[in-house]
């Protein structure tokens, strides 16, 4: 990957880029490294690891918590154009926890080293601000996941609803708007849309203007049980 | 409370204060309101509420998630000098979730209104940076709580250990260092210290140089079960 392409990606997805001096931009470009990962590879391994800030060029990454006994809890997924800063926790005093990150698809990832990120954060408050705002975005993702896991409500309710619908109509597609579904499951449209997006990222449904097509009945049934 | 006292609290605990212009400081002082809460009072009630940024002058607040069915999950506690920004989520695009905040003791809380905070964040990047860094601190608190809740390990293990110790010695105080306890429960000293601090905030133990004194055996036993 050439420097111009790296600069293009950084300027598009790292919003502090425009606030860097020419010297800082050049320094960042020479520090940035592209790494390719095969599907299933471990990218960041909790406390034994500090990869720095990463920007996904291609593919999909899954971030999760891992217990001592090996239990995994998926926190969120990131795709092309997304930035991850939890992998730079060693240089971020406000982040005192560790996560695991795997490649869920063949992925290409840009890395900005932790030491370089740290020096840039110390010099440029726009970089510091970007990093903590990005961390706060992930905080929101995690809180959403926790709501689902701890209160076990919407995912199951929505799965039950979709399962009942396709059983009733003998059609793999549910021809309803998110608004209508929300009314039926007693929730808000935003909540249903977000959950459907999650179902879609899990390969359970396919969303289109025409409705919600179930593409993995087995997974849906498991959720509905 | 007079203006000088408010300014003193802001300058001590709102680290962006020194980066405000005189005009911004004056504006903030005239926007800031002190409110007193009795123990048990609700301070912030999820999505129906947007109180702005708050700074605790006195007392203790508990932040928790609330399910539709009324189930509560404690996320963290804040005390004198701590700042909360989750109560300003309506003006923070990166925060898409809602929490509940109660007073656990009689408390005095300074409020900076959401609209004023928003206008200050737009004008002054140090304020924006402070807000998102504070949110990231809370992210760490929440992740710690989630680790405990989802993986149910250290709290229970530590409670079992303490329970066994006091039964063995017929003494309410466990005369061991955190380091020694950590070795015995197979964990790191930092983890044990943090958990003991949590036990202490829950009124289960009292920590001193001499050791760990159990002050609520019933609560400890319940944890150990």
Automatic annotation (TrEMBL), chains A, B:
Which molecular-function annotations from GO does this UniProt entry contain? Answer: DNA binding
Annotated GO biological process: regulation of DNA-templated transcription
Keyword Repeat in the entry? The reply is no
Which Pfam families does the record match to this protein? cNMP_binding, HTH_Crp_2
Question: Which PROSITE patterns does this entry report, sorted A to Z?
Answer: HTH_CRP_2
Domain HTH crp-type, chain residue ranges per copy: 152-218
UniProt keywords, alphabetically: DNA-binding, Transcription, Transcription regulation
Native species of this protein?
Sporobacter termitidis DSM 10068
Q: Identify this protein by name.
A: CRP/FNR family transcriptional regulator, anaerobic regulatory protein
Q: Which SUPFAM superfamilies match?
A: cAMP-binding domain-like (SSF51206), Winged helix' DNA-binding domain (SSF46785)
Q: Which InterPro entries match?
A: cNMP-bd_dom, cNMP-bd_dom_sf, HTH_CRP, RmlC-like_jellyroll, WH-like_DNA-bd_sf, WH_DNA-bd_sf
């Amino acid at each position: 990957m050439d420097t111009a392409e790296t600069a293009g990606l950084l300027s598009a997805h790292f919003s502090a880029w425009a606030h860097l001096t020419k010297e800082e931009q050049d320094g960042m470009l020479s520090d940035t490294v592209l790494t390719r990962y095969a599907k299933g590879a471990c990218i960041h391994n909790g406390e034994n690891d500090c990869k720095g800030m990463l920007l996904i060029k291609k593919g999909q990454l899954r971030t999760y918590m891992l217990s001592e006994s090996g239990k995994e809890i998926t926190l969120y997924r990131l795709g092309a154009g997304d930035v991850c800063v939890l992998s730079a926790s060693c240089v971020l005093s406000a982040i005192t926890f560790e996560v695991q990150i795997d490649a869920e698809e063949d992925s290409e990832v840009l890395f900005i080293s932790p030491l370089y990120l740290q020096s840039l954060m110390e010099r440029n408050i726009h970089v510091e601000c970007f990093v903590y705002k990005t961390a706060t975005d992930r905080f929101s993702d995690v809180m959403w996941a926790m709501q689902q896991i701890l209160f076990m409500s919407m995912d199951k309710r929505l799965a039950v609803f979709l399962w009942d619908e396709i059983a009733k109509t003998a059609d793999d597609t549910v021809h309803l708007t998110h608004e209508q579904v929300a009314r039926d499951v007693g929730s808000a449209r935003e909540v249903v849309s977000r959950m459907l997006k999650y179902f879609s990222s899990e390969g359970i449904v396919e969303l289109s203007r025409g409705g919600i097509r179930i593409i993995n009945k087995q997974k849906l049934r498991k959720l509905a049980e």
